[in-house]
Design goal:
By secondary structure, the protein is an alpha+beta fold. The protein is built from ten helices and twelve strands. It has a four-stranded antiparallel β-sheet, with no helix packed on it. Strands 1-2-3 form a three-stranded parallel β-sheet, sandwiched between helices. It has a three-stranded antiparallel β-sheet with strand order 7-6-8, with no helix packed on it. Strand 4 and strand 5 form a beta hairpin. It catalyses: tRNA(Met) + L-methionine + ATP = L-methionyl-tRNA(Met) + AMP + diphosphate.
Length: about 325
Amino acid sequence: IAAAVEIWAQGPTALPPPRQPRTPVLPVEGERNVLITSALPYVNNVPHLGNIIGCVLSADTFARYCRLRGWNTLFVCGTDEYGTATETRALEEGLSPQELCDRYHAVHADVYAWFRISFDHFGRTTTPQQTRIAQDIFQRLLARGFLLQDTLEQLRCESCGRYLADRFVEGTCPFCGYAEARGDQCDKCGKLINAVELKNPQCKICRGTPVVTPTQHLFLDLPKLEGRLEAWLERTWAAGDWTANARHITRTWLRDGLKPRCITRDLTWGTPVPLDGFRDKVFYVWFDAPIGYLSITANYTEQWERWWKNPQQ
């Protein structure tokens, strides 16, 4: 405390000289290098104060602090643009998903610029780099035996000629009887729903009656990783960097046993699956979206791996 008071009394003269900005910002040997991201905002709406306060503003505050400390800091973010919510909103507005994303990406960028959020780069997930990196990660998982195939029962609308993602189905909730439940959740009772469980299901696009049809999908074989994951968690928990809430949620997942996780969807809007028999499908957005942090950095600099594959610096 005494040292802090002394430095404060000296005023700006006690500050280290400001860093000279570099473009691009890359890790520097022998310096403290800090990579900062914030949760990628979804692109199908106009951001509001809650979006900014919830994640963007806190990351910006920390980035400014790091720069004032003289640390070599890179702050990236961008819009999350794949998924059925984008398709649904595009249908409502009479646009293609790409047109909708182009519109709202510009809105997001303008809003954050108005708030003077100090991103070094604000990108998006609908880029060639996203496709390349996501498909490369997929191929590595496939080669190492961490993927498996299985059949899912899904609702298919014959009138539209397509399988219906969760948000393209409405019907009666099997739990509370609410007549306008979505294919993923009931907004009245809050319970999660599998779309095939809905009573009186309707296609949200044409209001036709879909039928249950089997379809092949790819799954991440999480049970095969469970032992290695538990060993890693024990080491990182011992370091003391996890919150009590994060530990509790993680232990609950492990207590119940990890299950295979589907990573593909019968959609056209998304990153294509590069495997014969699945080329008419795309990656499920929860497999694809986290890779956006890497691909956005790759759009900022071709040397993105120096940030993401460089634990020594």
